[in-house]
């Protein structure tokens, strides 16, 4: 935990820079900049994990609600200050997730500086709007050297901010992957590298079977402080059985965060299952489990929040898909309830 003086809701101002030097320890600082009055970061400050729950500086449970951006190499137009600001001000999100692509030739593995710049843009916009930001190493297979390099560069530059959250492995596969043999050692390596730079901010870990085997991870958890686990679901595919696994992990003491979910099938397409979506939302709210929807993109699939051709901000009802309309309404209602 940070000392009390650093746990105040103050975030250091960071001037913009066209080129990122990943070896620079952090940007030059022109003095403290308070989070906007009433913003999520102003209310909760630096987050911690206590007793299997994510809590704010006052020790009370915090439920973040937000949107995930799409794979960064395929929807770069939404990795913008405009998009983050619109989500914060119009959709009333308390957090955003930057899904930094770690797959294929056009990803952070081959275009490190370009993708680091995208993450930087999202982080700085989140800081300016007083919301939290997850930097997600968006991979289905392990790339430990590249993940360590990328996330420690983020930690060196932004680890002093209280709104930063790391997600080192989006969705490990199921086949041929074992938690204790394969995924836990990967996480131990990345956690140690991050903690050497940033001792405090939340790190949210993935588990096998596309981050659904949280009950297995709970039997052999990664040691350390402020370490939680992600749970991914798609409401039309995953229902009571996955919530039972999540409840088993929670009973074992794991703090969970849903960093990715959809209202539709696990393919990212198909019809919205509203009954299952509501059951998941009720479960998350009852248990103070944060949630981030997949995703802000204009891809022609039903999980996308935007219709094809939608710009980076200023969306009207005509720009939103059925999923986008439902999410915006849910986020705005939750923010209004929190404000009361």
Automatic annotation (TrEMBL):
Residues 56-299 form the Glycoside hydrolase family domain. Belongs to the glycosyl hydrolase 5 (cellulase A) family. Residues 302-322 are annotated as: Disordered. One of its GO terms (molecular function) is hydrolase activity, hydrolyzing O-glycosyl compounds. The keyword Hydrolase applies. Residues 1-20 form the signal peptide. GO terms for biological process: polysaccharide catabolic process. This is Cellulase family glycosylhydrolase. Keywords: Glycosidase, Hydrolase, Signal. Gene3D superfamilies: Glycosidases (3.20.20.80). The keyword Signal applies. Pfam families: Cellulase. SUPFAM superfamilies: (Trans)glycosidases.
